Structures are given as structure tokens and as C-alpha cells.
Amino acid sequence: MEENILPVYIEDEVRQSYLDYAMSVIVGRALPDVKDGLKPVQRRILYSMKELGLLPQRPYKKSAAVIGDVLGKYHPHGDGAIYDALARMVQEFSLRYPLIDGQGNFGSVDGDPPAAYRYTEARLTPLAIELLKDIEKDTVDFQPNFDGSRKEPTVLPSSFPNLIVNGSSGIAVGMATNIPPHNFGEVIDATVAFIENPDISIEDLMHHIKGPDFPTGGVIMGEEGIKEAYEKGRGRIILRGKLSVEERKGGKEAIVITEIPYQVNKAQLIEKIAYLVREKRITDISDIKDESDRESIRIVLELKRGAQKEVIINSLYGMTPLQVTYSIILLAIVELVPRIMSLKEMISQFVEFRHEVVKRRTQFELKKAEERAHILEGLKKCLDKIDEVIAVIKSSKDPDTARGRLMKKFALSEKQAQAILEMRLQRLTGLEREKIEKEYLELIKEIERLKTILSSRALILEVIKQELLELKKKYADERRTEIVKEKPEEIKIEDLIKEEDVVVLLTKKGYIKRIPLTVYRKQQRGGGGKTVVDVGDEDFVISVIIASTHDHLLFFSNLGKVYTLRVFDIPEASQYSKGKPLVQFFELGKEEKISSVTKVSLFSLHNFIFMITEKGLVKKVSVASFSNIRRSGTIAINFQDKDRLVDAFFLDKEKDVMIFTSLGNCIRFSSSLVRPMGRYAAGVRGIRMSPEDRVIAGYHANEKEDIVVVTEKGYGKRIRIKELPGFKTRGGKGVRFIRVNEKSGRVAYARGASEEDEIIIITKKGMSIRIPVSSVKLQKRNSLGVKLISLKQDDEVADFGVMKKSG
User: Fold this and answer.
1) 233-270 burial, b for 16+ CB within 10 Å, e for fewer?
2) Which one of 9, 18, 60, 119 is the catalytic residue?
3) Domain termination site, one of 321, 341, 376
4) Which residue segment(s) compose the domain that 469 sits in?
5) What pLDDT digit, counting tens, does each position of 247-280 carry?
6) Active site residue 317
């Protein structure tokens, strides 16, 4: 026998086989049907439970019996898949309106799995009966099961739009659906509104359906994502858990979470919060308690006294699943084809399906009524001639002969004749005759009613409408998920960071760190100080900045470039650590060093950075020019004659600026004398100096402050600003502001401060001292100053910072 072998390209075979598999998964397993909102496994479970008689008024039955029945008759894909689907239809935290009433452990919102199916019991809920109602009245098509031994429904009659009410989620091949649940009463109202006006807009439908209504409650932030999903079939919504702040004893507070987003695992949420607290990414939470029970969720986060609860709440929303983005995909099977629909299309598809169901049900009922009327017509004929009927029956040798003779003599149909033969003698009484007459008249009216309904689409729709309104009376409940109209502002990273003052330290070799201000303790003038940074013998601190964690820092290099860093991005370190090298944050050149750091809270065109070079040039640039700086930095000033940038500070308005030199000279003039320039300009002359002198600092004058000067060898003093006269022009030599000699050393730095402030002096070897400004002696311009810090051998003052409003 010759073999019949057909050559097939493997690409074609793989393509066709994969498409067949994909469609099998799409239609047969993963996606719901738009008509009843059920996947095949869910439909088979509910139908099998009806066959088993597991109705709401009947006793529970072991889940194992249901699993076995479904597995053996309809769904041969494994008991695990069937039980998972059954358990989900029980869970009140998964389905907005559960379709199965379970007894036993069917899992929890903490992610605990259901008990084995031999331990649990189940029966249908009243709402599930509404999905199955009238299935015996030829309302839906049936198809052979997997082995052809019996029939199963292709869909359930579904008295309500279950796809919208309970939603669905599933991943098929190359597509996915994620339909959120909705409020039963709202969905019924929208469906009725569509029946009354098929041209209704989606905006008008949204007057009825406000948005998704999740079983776990929560808060939907904004309506834009809802409207987009309802119009286009796809959208994204922001879903938050619900929390409140409770007062506790001792002035403390607690954040209490009472609702969590849909499908969020409560145990994992608590674990995530605990992890962030341990890692100190969320601070000021002293204890976490789960006080939830079977009926409600209650997670208590106890706060430390004085905690910034707004920052903690923002951190919870921004860093934990207490806020999630829920993607809506309104995709379902429509006549065996997967399709993304708008909300109106989903309602329209249901109404059309329901129209077909009611029409088929009415036709079925009409047929049954007509058949019964036909029988009653025969009974009426014979009851009027009962003696003749009895005589015919008695004289016949067998039932078949009697049937034939009755049909011939009284003009009866076969069914009518058979009904007369099967009639009991009690039907011959007067009362029974009246019942037959009454039943016949009622049937004639019912037949007329059913024919009238079938004659008009509008009447069928009216029947659907009335049935929906009846369901609403029985099953509608209050909305659980709150909808806030305004979309929340995007949670910025600074919203997650507690705003507090810190000290930022930068060393000559480019190490940076921040330390809480509480590390620095007050000392009296002349004390020995406290170690706050271990820099070793070859490094020393060059800059101390006291700033908020929300501030920006602009780092100006000696080569005239600028870099930026948020204060909260600077790693917090212990007082003895060196910190992190700046090269981890910036791409510094080989000969490039950071020479000045200034803090900026807001980048505005009306604010300026004032720059001063070592050779006395000055330049004024808008802060807005530095709002978008790359990691590799950007040009701040162009130099001439191998100059170097010494200082840069922030100006929020035109002020007098002061330039200080290492040999004790100072010039003061208005910043308005320097016009704003671009980033690439070189600047103009600010002060003239002798060749051996150099600029060491700059300052914007504040009449409410004094100038605090500290020399390299620890001497210092305060000078009234009025002691340093202003000049009407820039570019002069200025006046002397301190007498320097070998004992004092050159000037290390000069800054403005008020008497209520404190200063922190840092030495090159990493020692520090914190003293009130009021303890620094107020002196005249030509004085030497007094000892502020006792230095060890070979140590010098590197810098000092001013701490506002001490105490």
C-alpha cells in the first residue's frame, strides 16, 4: 500500500498550530464572554452546581463533589484549575458580588490559600441563580461536552450584566483583559438608561456608573482614567487605600489603614512597610500592628512624637502598594472573537443578548401555552359529550383502538385523544370542569400576552427593563469605593522625604556627607571641639552648608563649572565616616575641584547667583540658567589669565555684595552695578588687590547681621556691617576689616550672622566647635579678634557655617 505523504513547510505548520492553540486559549479558557461575563470554567462550575441541586435554600455540599462533577463532565483541565475558580467565586475580597456561598476556609486577603476541597463546602448564591434562571426554557444554545456524552450551555441566560458587575481578569495569548467590578445598582440604572435611549452618550452613562466599585473599597483618584477607559476600552486609574489619623495618649498620633487597594495582599503590604521602616526610608514609625479581623481591615502605624504625618502618608502612597495604578482593559469574547469595547458597547451587547434570551423564553412559553390550550380544547369537547366518550372507550379492545376512534368521532388530534385516555375520573366532577374552563380562559389571555410581546421589540425591552429593576430592588447596595474628582498631584520624591535641617560637609578631596543637626552640641567659646568627620591626615573640610533636605545644592568648581545635587540625595552618615566621593555623583575633570557650594530652594528668573573669582572678578547669572544641569555639569563662568572661581552665593534681590581677601581687605558695592550675564561670560572687575593677596569669600550684605571673621589660626571677631562702608563703584581696593599677622594667620573665611545664630567651625583635620554668635566678641575693623577654637599642632581652620535660630 502506497503511503500518502504531503510535504508541509514547518513554518506554515508551526504558524497554524500556534494560531489554533492561541484561539483555544483565548476562547476556551482565559477570556470571559460578553454575554454572561464568565470564563468557561466558571460557567461549567455554576451549571454543574445547579444540576447537583446546590441551590441557596438547600444544604451545603462538599466542594470535592463539585470538583469531581465538573472535572468528569465538562472541564478536563485539572482539579486545581477548577477549585481555584470556585474559590475565587466565593471570596468576598475578589468578587464584588460572590456567586458561590462557601462554608470553610476559602483563603484570605493576606494571600492564604483555601483549605483543600475535601474540607470546604459550597452552594450557589441567590445572585448566581439569576445567571442560571430560565436556562431550561431554550433560552441559550447548548453544545456537546468534551467527549460528546452530554450537552453544556455555551453561555448562561444571565439576567444582569455580570461582566460589568463582577468584572474579570485573564491573560490569554497575545492579549489580556482586566475589567474592574462595578456597583450593581449603578450598572442596572445605566442599562435601563440605555434601553430607554440607545443613543445615550458615555458621559450620560457616567451619571449612573460613577466608576469601578471594588470589593475592598479604596479611593479612586481622578475621573480622567475612568472616562478614557469607558470611551476607548483602555485606561489607567490611581487607586489608593483609605487611612485616617487617630490621636493617641501623650500627644502621639497613629495612622490607621482601614481599606487597601483591590488585589493587594495585606500581609505583603505590612511587610513592605516594615522593610521601609527598618531601612529608614520611612522614619518616625515606632510600631506596626495588624488589628484586622474577618470583617474588616485595620492596620495601625504608631508614630513617634512630633512625626511629620504628611511626609509619612506620602511615603506610604509613593513607596508601598497602598497606592497602585490599575489598568483597565475592557476586552471580552463577542461571537467567538476577542474585542475591546467601550462601556456603551458592553451594555449594548448585553441588552442584545438579553433581548434574544427573553425572545426565546417567550417563544418557549408560548409554545408550551399553546400545547396546553390545545389539550384543554380537546378536554372541553369531550366533557360536553362524556357519556359518548366513555362508551367509545369501553367498546374499544385496546388503547390504540380507543385513541383512533376518539380522534375520528370527535375530530381530535392525537395528543388530545391521548390526554382524554389519561384523564382521571375525578376530572368529571363539576368543580374540575370549572377548573378546566378557567385554566383555558387564562391560557388564552397568556397566549395573547406572549404573542403581543413577541410582536414588538419595544415590549421585549420593556420586559427586560422591568426585570432589571426588580433585580435592583433585591441586590443593589451602597458603593464601597470612593471617587475623588481631582487627580492627585504627582508624588515628587521630596514629598517622601522628611524636611529637616542638616549639615552638609565637603572635604578638599571631594568627599561629601550629611549629618543631622542634632549631632552638634553647644559649647562655649574657646572649647576644644568635637570630631564630626574623620578625614585622615591628608584631607580637610572645605565647606559647611546648613540646609533643608528639600534644598538643591549648586556645586561650583574651581574651573568655572557648576553641578547640582538634592540634599536628600546626599547619603546620611555617622559623624566619624568620610562620606561618599563626589565622583559618584558628578563627572569631575582631572584638575577640577569643588570650590564653592550654595543652596537654592527655587529656580527663578528673578533670582541670581553671584560669582567671585580668586583674582577679584565678579559675575551675576540668573538661577534659572542652572535649573537643568547634566551629570557632567555645565559652564558657569569663562576665565581669563588662569583665574579660579572662589565663591558663589544666592541673591533673591538686588543687595550690597561684599568681597573679602585673605590679607583682610573688603569692598562693598551694590549688586545692581553688575549686569546679568550669560553662563559663558567672563565677568567684570570687583576688587583690586596686591599680587600676594587673593579673594577668600563673598557675602550679600544684611543690615540685621554682623560679619563674623575667622582666621586660619582660630582667631575671630564680629564686625558691624555699618563699619564697612559701601562704594558707589566696583573695582576699588576697599577697606581693611581685620588686622592679620603671624599669630592670627590669614583670613580663613568671613560670613554674615545674627546674634541669635550659632556658628560651626571646622578645621582641616576634622575637628569642630559649635558656639553662639553672641559669644564672639564685637570689635572694630582694625582689631585682631579673640581665640575662638584651640587648634592642635599643624591644624588650621578650613571653614565655618552659620546655623540660623539656634537653641
Assistant:
1) bebebbbbbbbeeeeeeeeebbbbbebbbbbbbbeebb
2) 119
3) 321
4) 353-474
5) 988 788 999 999 999 999 999 999 999 999 998 8
6) no
